[in-house]
Amino acid sequence: MSEVKRNCVRVGEASGEAVRDLISDEASGPPSEDPDTGSARPKAGTGGLLEAALTRQNLQAAWKRVKANKGAAGADGLDIEQTADLLRTRWPDIREALLQGCYRPSPVRKVMIPKPDGSQRELGIPTALDRLIQQALLQVLQPLIDPTFSEHSHGFRPGRRAHDAVKAARSYVQSGKRVVVDVDLEKFFDRVNHDILIDRLKRRIDDAGVIRLVRAYLNAGIMDGGVVIERHLGTPQGGPLSPLLANVLLDEVDKALDTRGYSFARYADDCNVYVVSRKAGERVMALLRTLYAKLRLQINEAKSAVASAFGRKFLGYALWVARGKEVKCAVAHKALRGMQHGASRRENPALSAWMEGVLRTSANARSLAEAGRVAAPPIAGHTAQALETAGDDLPRTQGIRCEGRRGATSGGEQPTLVAQQ
User: Fold this and answer.
1) What pTM was computed for the model?
2) Mean pLDDT throughout 380-387?
3) Which stretches within 101-241 are classed as H helix?
């Protein structure tokens, strides 16, 4: 359980933050919302940003979000309902500790989740209490910070999604920029430098209480097998604040590319820059190495490249040229194989068999293409509607439509998955 220092004054319900109101869904009306982000916006006269984050209405909205996400317990072992019981008795103390700057977050709980390629991704699960506090902070910070980000940034931002990044990439390639500088960062979330991140955050907000609390979350450590390990680098994936903090750091590179007029799309730590020649691409790659080095980040040279835009995938999609020289995008073969792997893990034989059929059809189309009989797209066969109705646990396919293409494999119209205009 998060610690509250003994020298913090206990604050009762007379403070205006009645605990029963915090965990009640009907205690008051909805918080004020920013029209662009839908997040709570601090009002004039409420004091600093931390005070705005800890208002009753903002905390209620944050608690609803935490409950709706139904996340797992953190290092304290408390689920949502148990955390609600804790708040009924401890919230006045916790709030006072937050305001006085002596609140100490609990370590995050280390969880490893499998990736489609067989490797594992590390997540850090905060306690439900810390998720509540982080979400409350996010609702205040996001309306202030998000509008300052580059228009080329699409990841973890209100009103934006991965398909927007893919469509932007397709438009760049359609315009003739058919060489991509595909950059993959080496363990980005594990290597974020705390001092650099805090410095970039200070440039955007002027609130010592928020800065101090964010620093406390970065330094909270991680619990692995009952042992707490100190962290001096990284912002663990799993908390509500992590995506915003990642964008705060990486926006510096975005702005440098913006200033130079480059065409690019970034989603979290995946960034693709589109240019007209390989020579220009090599110059951009050298620039990116310099920019990322200033942030103490390292490019994964094995996964990064300057190459044809048609030979790389971006966010699970691959580009190809249809008849009439129109550039289209389709779910990449590897991404679909990952979806099939997920289906088999959920023990859905029918769905797994359907996925196998898609892959088989794609393989046949590729074989014909290699024989010179037909130009095959990255994925051939089966409609987007089938993906959308296959199961709620599948990755989203909203914004994808199905376009027919006549292929030698079927003698008729062959549906292909492409992103909507």
Assistant:
1) 0.71
2) 34
3) 128-145, 162-174, 188-191, 194-202, 208-218
